[in-house]
Amino acid sequence: MNYTLRVACEHDIPILKRMIEESTKGLCTEFYTPVQIDLALQSALGVDSQLIDDKTYFCIEAQGEIIACGGWSYRATLFGSDDEQSRNATELDPDTQAAKIRAFFVKPDHARQGIGSMLLKKCETEAICRGYRTLELMATLPGVKLYERHGFVAGETVEYNLGEGTHITFMPMSKRLERF
Which of 49, 156, 160, 163 is the most exposed, fewest CB within 10 Å of its CB? Predict the structure, then answer.
């Protein structure tokens, strides 16, 4: 199948929201409860329009349909959607701080076909071109294997408070970048 990788645009947001929900509900059920998934989709997982404004968020299309999205950031926010309260748009110093890998989602029927790897390579290349030496991310448990295959090293798990007495487990990960 032919895939097209492009920069996400503001008009993609409604489609991205639906695709992210489908991805999360389809690929996270082995790791998280339905309550955790529903609450995570209200803040921790979703579209961060700052990435779209910065032109560092990408879509992958197959036959004109968005089947995956993901991006990177040169800002301080590590994860979360527009509804996440702890967002921080401060720009990072590439000499001393890590760029962030952000919000990777793939439609379930396209999972494990190299699409996440395609997005990750695009993000790594752009971060390197902007002078970054390291990357960091906050992985959902289903995403850990993808990032490990690409050289990311896991830290200690984090129990993130979703509210309503519910927490979700995330895995912080990092990687030193190789220059071309």
Answer: 156
Q: Range of 171's domain? A: 3-176
Question: Using 50, 70 and 90 to split pLDDT, how confident is the model at 81?
Answer: confident
Q: How many CB atoms neighbour CB 46 within 10 A? A: 23
How far apart are alpha carbons 123 and 102 in whole angstroms? 9
pTM: 0.93
* CATH number of the CATH domain containing 14: 3.40.630.30
Write down the H helix ranges in 11-154.
13-27, 34-40, 49-54, 115-129, 144-149
User: Which pLDDT tens digit goes with each residue over 103-145?
Assistant: 999 999 999 999 999 999 999 999 999 999 999 999 999 999 9
Query: Across the strands, what pairs with 91?
Result: 75
